[in-house]
C-alpha cells in the first residue's frame, strides 16, 4: 500500500524504552505507531532506548501498521546518533517506514536529517511558532511524506491556555493543513492528553476530521477505538458517495453535467470526493485483512 493510500486514523506513540508497550503494540488496532525516542524517554534512558527499539524493529512483527521512529533533535546530544543508528538498522534489515523529526522550524531542519539517512521518508513534527510560519516550505521538501501536529509544544510556545475548542491553536492547525494539502502530504492531528476522557477525545477527533486531518496521534491504547471510528468514513458517508456516483453517471449518460441527490447538486468535483471516501473505506478493510 502506498503511503498516500494507507489509512492513518490512529497513530499511537510508544515510548521506545518500554519493552511491554513495544510488545503490546503489535497486537493493538492502530494504523501507525510512532516509536518515540524523544519526549517519552527520560534522559538517563536515551541510549538504552535506542538499542531496545532497534531490537523490536528488527524482531517484532508489527503487521501492516506503519512504523515511524521519532528521533531526538539534532541540537541534542542524542539526535545525530539516533538517526545514524536508524540508518544502520535499516541497512541491517530493520523495518522503518519513516523518520519523524521533532520541532521542525524550517526546510534546513529536514535537510540536516536527509543528509544523514537515505531511502527513508521523513516526517516533521509541526510544533513551533516558526514552523507554523514556514509550514509551506517544510511541506514542499522533496523528502517529506507526512506532518504531525505537536499541540503540546505549540501551546507551550504560544503560552496559550487549554480550551476544548482549541481556539488558540486553530491558526497553526490551519496553516499546516493548507501546506500539507497543497503538497499532497499526510497530516495527523496532535494528542489529547486526558487519556481517560473519552467524550473530550471524541470532540477533538471530530474537530480534526472536520478540518481535514487524516487521523490523530494518541498516547494510550484506550484512545484507539474513538479515533478509528472518527477518521473512517461512516456508513452514511459511504452510502451517499455510492448514490452520488450512480446519479452522476446517469446524468452524464443523458448528456447532463449535474445531478441532484438528497436535494443537493452533485458535480464532477463532488465525485472526486465521493471516490476518495470509497477508496479510504476500501483501504481500511484491506488493512484489517
Ligand atoms: C500515559 C501513560 C504513561 C499511561 O501509562 P500506564 O499508567 O502504564 O497505563 P495503563 O496502566 O492504563 O496501561 C494499560 C496497558 O496498556 C499499555 N500501554 C499504555 N500506554 C501504551 C502505549 N502508548 N502504547 C502501547 N501500550 C501502552 C500498558 O503497557 C499496559 O499494558 P498491559 O501490561 O498489557 O496491561 C502511557 O500510556 C504512556 O507512556 N503513553 C505514551 C506517552 C508518550 O508517548 N508521550 C510522548 C508523546 S506525546 C508528545 O510528545 C506530543 C507532541 O510532541 C506535542 O508536543 O504535543
Ligand atoms: Mg512535542
Automatic annotation (TrEMBL):
<dbReference type="InterPro" id="IPR040442">
    <property type="entry name" value="Pyrv_kinase-like_dom_sf"/>
</dbReference>
<dbReference type="InterPro" id="IPR015813">
    <property type="entry name" value="Pyrv/PenolPyrv_kinase-like_dom"/>
</dbReference>
<dbReference type="GO" id="GO:0046872">
    <property type="term" value="F:metal ion binding"/>
</dbReference>
<dbReference type="InterPro" id="IPR005000">
    <property type="entry name" value="Aldolase/citrate-lyase_domain"/>
</dbReference>
<feature type="binding site">
    <location>
        <position position="70"/>
    </location>
    <ligand>
        <name>substrate</name>
    </ligand>
</feature>
<dbReference type="InterPro" id="IPR011206">
    <property type="entry name" value="Citrate_lyase_beta/mcl1/mcl2"/>
</dbReference>
<feature type="binding site">
    <location>
        <position position="153"/>
    </location>
    <ligand>
        <name>Mg(2+)</name>
    </ligand>
</feature>
<dbReference type="GO" id="GO:0047777">
    <property type="term" value="F:(S)-citramalyl-CoA lyase activity"/>
</dbReference>
<protein>
    <submittedName>
        <fullName>(3S)-malyl-CoA thioesterase</fullName>
    </submittedName>
</protein>
<dbReference type="Pfam" id="PF03328">
    <property type="entry name" value="HpcH_HpaI"/>
</dbReference>
<dbReference type="InterPro" id="IPR040186">
    <property type="entry name" value="Citramalyl-CoA_lyase"/>
</dbReference>
<keyword id="KW-0479">Metal-binding</keyword>
<feature type="binding site">
    <location>
        <position position="127"/>
    </location>
    <ligand>
        <name>substrate</name>
    </ligand>
</feature>
<feature type="binding site">
    <location>
        <position position="127"/>
    </location>
    <ligand>
        <name>Mg(2+)</name>
    </ligand>
</feature>
<comment type="similarity">
    <text>Belongs to the HpcH/HpaI aldolase family.</text>
</comment>
<keyword id="KW-0460">Magnesium</keyword>
<feature type="domain" description="HpcH/HpaI aldolase/citrate lyase">
    <location>
        <begin position="9"/>
        <end position="221"/>
    </location>
</feature>
<dbReference type="GO" id="GO:0106064">
    <property type="term" value="P:regulation of cobalamin metabolic process"/>
</dbReference>
Amino acid at each position: 500500500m502506498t503511503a498516500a493510500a494507507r489509512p492513518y486514523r490512529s497513530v499511537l506513540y510508544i515510548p521506545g524504552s518500554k519493552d511491554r508497550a513495544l510488545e503490546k503494540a503489535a497486537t493493538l488496532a492502530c494504523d501507525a505507531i510512532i516509536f518515540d525516542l524523544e519526549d517519552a524517554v527520560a534522559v538517563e534512558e536515551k541510549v538504552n532506548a535506542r538499542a531496545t527499539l532497534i531490537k523490536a524493529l528488527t524482531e517484532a512483527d508489527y503487521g501492516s501498521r506503519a512504523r515511524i521512529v521519532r528521533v531526538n533533535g539534532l541540537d541534542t546530544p542524542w539526535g545525530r546518533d539516533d538517526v545514524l543508528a536508524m540508518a544502520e538498522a535499516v541497512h541491517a534489515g530493520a523495518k522503518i517506514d519513516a523518520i519523524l523529526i521533532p520541532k521542525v522550524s524550517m526546510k534546513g531542519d529536514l535537510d540536516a536529517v536527509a543528509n544523514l539517512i537515505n531511502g527513508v521518508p521523513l516526517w516533521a513534527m509541526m510544533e513551533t511558532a516558526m514552523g507554523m510560519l514556514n509550514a509551506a516550505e517544510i511541506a514542499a521538501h522533496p523528502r517529506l511524506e507526512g506532518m504531525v501536529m505537536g499541540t503540546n509544544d505549540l501551546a507551550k510556545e504560544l503560552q496559550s491556555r487549554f480550551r476544548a475548542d482549541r481556539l488558540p491553536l486553530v491558526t497553526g492547525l490551519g496553516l499546516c493543513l493548507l501546506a500539507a494539502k497543497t503538497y499532497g502530504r499526510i497530516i495527523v492531528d496532535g494528542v489529547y492528553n486526558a487519556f481517560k476522557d473519552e467524550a473530550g477525545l471524541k470532540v477533538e477527533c471530530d474537530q480534526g476530521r472536520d478540518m481535514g486531518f487524516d487521523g490523530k496521534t494518541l498516547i494510550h491504547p484506550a484512545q484507539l477505538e474513538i479515533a478509528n471510528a472518527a477518521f473512517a468514513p461512516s456508513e452514511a458517508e459511504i452510502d451517499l458517495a455510492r448514490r452520488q456516483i450512480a446519479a452522476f453517471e446517469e446524468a452524464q449518460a443523458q448528456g447532463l453535467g449535474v445531478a441532484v441527490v438528497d436535494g443537493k447538486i452533485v458535480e464532477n468535483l463532488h465525485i472526486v470526493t465521493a471516490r476518495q471516501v470509497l477508496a479510504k473505506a476500501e483501504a481500511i478493510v484491506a488493512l484489517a485483512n
